[in-house]
Amino acid sequence: MRCFGLLVGDGPVRRIAREEAAAYRGPGFVWLHAENGIDREVELLAGEEDIPDVAASALTATETRPRCDRIGDGALVNLRGLAEQGVESADRLVSIRFWVRHGRVTSVCRRPMSATDSVVKEMEAGRILDPGDLVAAFARTLSQELDPEVADLGDQLDDCETELETRNIYRLRARIAAIRVEAIAYRRFVAPDRDALLSLAAMDFDWLAEEDRLHIRDAADRFARMAEELEAVRERAALLHEQLTDLRAEQLDVRSLIIAIVALIFLPLTFITGLLGMNVKGIPYAQEPWAFWGVVAFCAVIGILVAIYFARIHWFRR
Known about the structure:
Blueprint: E1 2-8, E2 14-16, H1 18-23, E3 29-35, H2 39-46, H3 53-60, E4 67-71, E5 74-82, E6 93-101, E7 104-109, H4 114-124, H5 131-162, H6 169-202, H7 210-276, H8 291-312
Parallel strand pairs: 3-7
Antiparallel strand pairs: 1-2, 1-3, 4-5, 5-6, 6-7
Helix pairs in contact: 2-3, 4-5, 5-6, 5-7, 6-7, 7-8
């Protein structure tokens, strides 16, 4: 469990306890954050007097999707971003929920988020001075961290296209399926992230400066580009899967053709040997010493003639 409060604008940036943050009424800006917390701690954080029931319910929800809703003079903002390295999560992206109003931000993240430490460092360096700056910093950091991950999916598909050969069918099929699953998982939240940020940028709040709106729109544009890239990755993966299916079908056709040719070559030979192998009297030349090798030579000639016929009709080239 990590729960902290940061106070900005009332002297140097300093950390404060939840109780002190709840009682603070000065000119500064307070950010209260709970991360990887147990339900009781999250409920205490969300139970502050100035948090409406709708916002408190959204902060404590176990399952969320990106959204942005206006509630009076505050905004309820849910976003998704990369988890910290090594954190196991059912979803590719973890959720962070904000209740933002003038002079105060309350945020909850059920699992550790990669962007949190970067934003805290910006705040401690004095580059975040109000709630708008904080939300814009998170939007910028989340989009910048996710961008290389999405680009890497496209690069992996490029490698798969380069290696697209019959001998790589089974290995590539599993790899392309994994890329497609990951693209779908990212796409599920990247597009709503874009919509939530565009909605926030369009809202008229006194704590949201024009420069913050520009940063938020820039992050939304980056999310939009990632959504388009993920859609392209998904379509390319489907196309590559179809090509692999065609290659496999062609491979099976070639193998079936070879088996058919071998069977057809040996079909007349099987008939001849079966006819001569009957246990009845009257088989021609049965007593001759050269009969066995004569039959072998005759079968060889028949086999060669059949093979020449298949070569002339181009079966060996299909």
